[in-house]
Amino acid sequence: xxxxxxxxxxxxxxPNPSTxxxxxxxxxxxxxxLCANYSELNATQSSSSxxxxxxxxxxxxxxxxxxxxxxxxxxxxxxWGFTPYLFSQSTNYVEEGSGNNFYICTNTFGSxxxxxxxEGQISxxxxxxxxxxxxxxxxxxxxxxxxxxxFPDPTVYDDHCTIEFNYFPGIGxxxxxxxxxxxxxxxSMPYWIQRTNEVQMVxxxxxxxxxxxxxxxxxxxxxFEIPALENLHGDVNGDHSVNAADxxxxxxxxxNDDKTFLSTSDVNNDNSVNSADITAVYKIILGx
Length: 288
Known about the structure:
This protein has helices at 244-256, 275-286; strands at 22-29, 32-37, 40-44, 55-59, 65-69, 74-77, 81-83, 93-96, 102-106, 113-118, 121-125, 132-140, 148-150, 155-156, 160-168, 179-182, 185-188, 194-200, 205-212, 218-225.
């Protein structure tokens, strides 16, 4: 099959159905509208504003254009079925027609077949039947950032802090695409208005980034300074936690005269660094 491009076709392709903008269309063949009916492809004489009737076009890496349904979040496949795999071999695809028309093809039956419709009944045949036309339905664009975001100061405890993130969605923004990063680690936040995250052993500088890829473009980063965690007792190597790495740092000091962590090695405060400091770190790790 020769790869085709969207330039010869009467629609605009969508790079990714999970990011904006998305161009949605209604498809019509032989006077009938194509729609998704549960897991099957149907044809009806009457149109509807429901998502079952909305389709967008995605381009695969091989140049094929496949047809994606808004209601099911799946591609037309296996003739009149659907698949979550966007570009599998069984996925239906578009072939250029004449003028503003095109054809829907499938390879499910062992060879290329063309979708057709007669009196509302969908069928496939090896010869071209009725061409498909598109009707522009809507273009989903970015949501304007109407919501508000609040990062209060954290509440600091001995070994952790609690940070409360308050996001109040605006009109048309459910909050389902929010992403929160704490020191580069993502925390998913589906369908919420207020959320409290307790970060155990957070670093002295907690960099928090809040993003929403479907809002034009919103990304808020705030860095919290947490002085109370800067000098955590027993944290010899300065990684803001007390663990076996601190014991190793003490061994390097005592056995190899490695004074990299000179200022934090006297854990028991007896003005010397020796095996007693290693014992002190073990007690902190074990909670004694």
